[in-house]
Write a structure and sequence with these properties.
Layout: E1 4-5, H1 9-14, E2 22-26, E3 32-36, E4 42-49, E5 53-60, H2 66-81, H3 86-95, H4 99-109, H5 120-123
Parallel strand pairs: 1-2
Antiparallel strand pairs: 2-3, 3-4, 4-5
Amino acid sequence: METRFSFTKPKLSAIEPTPKRVSYYDAKNPGLILLVYPSGVKTFFVQKKLAGRVRIRLGNFPTLTLEQARDKAAEVYGCIAKDQNPAALRRAVKAEPVFLEVFERYITEKRNRSGKPLAPRTAE
């Protein structure tokens, strides 16, 4: 099978895994890629060049339908058109502290009116 063709559900379902990872490219939607791993997992990605190659994972094939993958790819293209790097945005969200980290920092750094740290009883 060619690696560049118009994606359809029957064609994607018919793809068999090989001993090496194989990339298939959508002819209708440039940048939309289906990676097929030797384990049989089929994953949609969007690949664009933004200060180097950026590959953004959209989801796995049976769970994520072809229409949903194309819609998500359009959202990624919209972010790129706004000069935003979607991969950098995802990394920034993951780097934000979770509630427990913020709460523990609050307890250790909080001071009472006189400037002393909180008493253990208050902190509990």
